[in-house]
Amino acid sequence: MSDYRFFAKPQPMPLAEIAARTNARLAGREGAGDIAISGVATLEDARPGEIVFYDSTRYAPALALCRASACFLREGASAQPPEGVARLFVADPHRAMALAGALLFPEALAPGSLFLAAGASPGAIVHPTARLESGVTLDPGVVVGPFAEIGAGSVLGAQASIGPGVKIGRNCRIGPHASLMHAFIGDRVIIHAGVRLGQDGFGFALGAQGHLKAPQLKRVVVQDDVEIGANTTIDRGALRDTIVGEGAKIDNLVQIGHNVVIGRGCVICAQTGVAGSTEIGDFVVIGGQAAIGGHLMIGAGAQIAARAGVVRDVAPGARMGGAPARPIREFLRAEALLSRMSRRSAAPSREG
């Protein structure tokens, strides 16, 4: 059950409508389509009036005891919920569950105003040359610099800082304490609390006489529908823009170096670091704590395992793991071999 202190209690939605919106085939007792759904939950915690999903046999025992009113599952699933639970058959139960949650709790999808208010707070500071379209919300402590532009419907959380000339598109959400400098932001972008965009890249000409700082003269360009997690940092480019492609999703605590180009639909998990001037193709997935070296090419559709260390180019569609990263099958075979050798060396000797 959701805590309505933090998320507004939703209007109950008929199960038939949820089925239609999720492209599900509804099966159950007569009148199942009229069941009112007002929440989402886990299999273990669900109550009547809530909907759940099932997509792994490891949760079959919990499914058998589930008390929810409805359950998303795949056609032909080996396990089924109790007789009184309506079934919604879909191609992807997790995706259907996410959509149902969004239908019931749309405000949970992005950070909103901490004051649940619209318009500019008296505590916000907006430079006279800045341009704000209609319906922009500024929480207390927001600073908007000279010649900045903010699109209609965007919400900026408390203490967010928008630097001179920064452009933010329409219907964006900028979390508390985020700072945006030297940046162009597309539409429907979500930037969570504490994000830093557009600060200096880490560029120095090294030498015995001292390390000479190289001017970072370009920008960060964030395309439409990107989401950037809390406390992630993205440096502006030195001689070319740092780019985050349309629909990319970046987790918390990620570092993106200067001149990096991230393709469309990429997913980058927490604590990953991408060094400068690397290009990442469309729909690449990078696991947590991975380290990606500089000046590399990561091909479209590649998958990089968690904690991998990538020091060479990666071919499109390749699956890589380990440090240094190598094809995932090779990495797993090596890990299995090392494990066997370790067990053998630890076994007590039978001699004597």
Automatic annotation (TrEMBL):
Top-rank taxon: Bacteria
PROSITE patterns: HEXAPEP_TRANSFERASES
GO molecular function ontology, one term from the record: N-acyltransferase activity
Protein name (Swiss-Prot/TrEMBL): UDP-3-O-acylglucosamine N-acyltransferase
GO terms under biological process: lipid A biosynthetic process
Database matches in CDD domains: LbH_LpxD (cd03352)
Family: Belongs to the transferase hexapeptide repeat family. LpxD subfamily.
Enzyme Commission number(s) from the entry: 2.3.1.191
Pathway(s) annotated for this protein in UniProt: Bacterial outer membrane biogenesis; LPS lipid A biosynthesis
Broadest EC class assigned to this enzyme: transferase
Keyword Repeat recorded: yes
GO CC, any one term: membrane
UDP-3-O-[3-hydroxymyristoyl] glucosamine N-acyltransferase non-repeat region domain sequence ranges: 34-102
